[in-house]
Amino acid sequence: MRNKISVIGAGNVGATTAHLIFQKGYADVVLLDIAEGIAKGKALDILESGPVQGSDAHIKGTADYGDTQGSSIVIITAGIPRKPGMSRDDLLITNMKIVGEVTAQVVKYSPEATLIVVSNPLDAMVQHAFKSSGLKKNKVIGMAGVLDSARFRTFLAEALKISPKEIQAYVLGGHGDSMVPLIDYTTIAGVPVSKLLPKDKIEAIVKRTQGGGGEIVALLETGSAYYAPAASIVEMVDALVHDQKRILPCAAYLEGEYGINNLYVGVPVRLGASGIEEVLEFELSTSESALLKQSAAAVQELIDIMANSSA
Ligand code: APR
Predict the structure, then answer these.
(1) Cα of 9 to ligand 1 centre, how many Å?
(2) Which residue among 17, 54, 105, 282 is buried most deeply as judged by most CB within 10 Å?
(3) Which of 6, 12, 68 most suits a substitution to test ligand 1, by most atoms within 8 Å of the C-beta?
């Protein structure tokens, strides 16, 4: 039997992710949304692309959590996206309620699943899903760092006029304006970026990366990014399904690593079949370490707001 992967939320991010996984053919997909017709219509449309694209996987659209039963991976994209002028934090309370409800349903039917949380504000939502799920911390992962690093790599590749495939980079911290691109660990074919680009150019690229999601929101006007987010989710799914042991920046629950406690923050992790198999503690410069702590403090503020709102 193929793996079963469920995607909750059949909006832009969810449907694009479901399509990409379907194309790979290694898993059957369940696409769930409260808007049943949207989930069913998009799933049927994706299914009908199978004969042309050579995928013999199955995909089902539904509003019934019973259909997600026995999923090995569940991707949570349900919630509202940003509109121009909004920060990710403006989505907090609305998406907290949605993510809490969704997570409770998901674990009822798939208690063995690994959850990948995508709804924003990401770090707060993944923490909320972790607490609501009762799952072990290695099984609840947030998607943000892969996307932020992809944006960083894209802008570096443009500046250097080289393939982004040659660039290794890690963006850590919360998925917000305080994210922390690690310059010392950013290499181009093994060469540190600081040897190839002047400091002010790197700083400008870091700034653009930090505002990368907002740049797209401002252009779209009606929602937020989804092609690069979906591709980033699928890179994580590949690592889980194929036990690839990839080192990817993901939001992980920290218990002392990087001096941060009881909080989801983006850090490099080893991703394999059992989820987060290890949090890697890169040696950070004093300023990077301070920025990471600052970023964690911004996430903690949101956690505190959520705690007060449900108290
Ligand atoms: N249960 C299931 N689905 C829900 C629920 C719920 N309780 N509440 C909302 N949804 C669905 C909506 O019906 C919609 O189809 O979630 C979907 C969200 O889709 P979009 O509005 O297109 O948003 P999208 O761009 O996909 O972003 C989803 O991911 O990147 C983040 O910030 C983004 O939080 C946002 C999320």
Answers:
(1) 5
(2) 17
(3) 12
pTM value is: 0.97
CB count within 10 Å of CB 47 equals 17
Report pLDDT for 176.
84
pLDDT tens profile 180-236: 999 999 999 999 999 999 999 999 999 999 999 999 999 999 999 999 999 999 999
First to last CA, the chain: 44
Q: Is 3-142 in CATH node 3.40.50.300?
A: no
Six-digit token pair at 31?
Answer: 């696409």
Mean pLDDT of 38-62: 97
Segments of the chain assigned to CATH 3.40.50.720: 3-142
Question: What spacing in Å lies between the alpha carbon of 193 and ligand 1's midpoint?
Answer: 37
Structure tokens at 120: 């924003």
Q: Angle, to 10 degrees, between the axis of helix 227-241 and the axis of helix 145-160?
A: 120
Tell which atom from ligand 1 comes closest to the C-alpha of 14. Answer: 26
Instruction: Encode pLDDT of 120-155 as tens digits.
Output: 999 999 999 999 999 999 999 999 999 999 999 999
pLDDT bucket at 310, cuts 50 / 70 / 90: low
Residue ranges, CATH 3.90.110.10, the chain? 145-309
Topology of domain 145-309, CATH: L-2-Hydroxyisocaproate Dehydrogenase; Chain A, domain 2 (3.90.110)
Q: What residues line ligand 1, using a CB cutoff of 6 Å?
A: 8-14, 33-35, 38, 77-79, 81-82, 91, 95, 98, 101-102, 118-120, 223-224, 226, 229
**Active-site residue, 128 included:** no
**Is the peptide bond preceding residue 81 cis, with omega within 30 degrees of 0?**
no
One-character DSSP codes across 185-252: T-EETTEEGGGTS-HHHHHHHHHHHHTHHHHHHHHHSSS---HHHHHHHHHHHHHHHTT--EEEEEEE
The pLDDT value given to residue 175: 87
Distance 304 CA to ligand 1 centre (A): 23
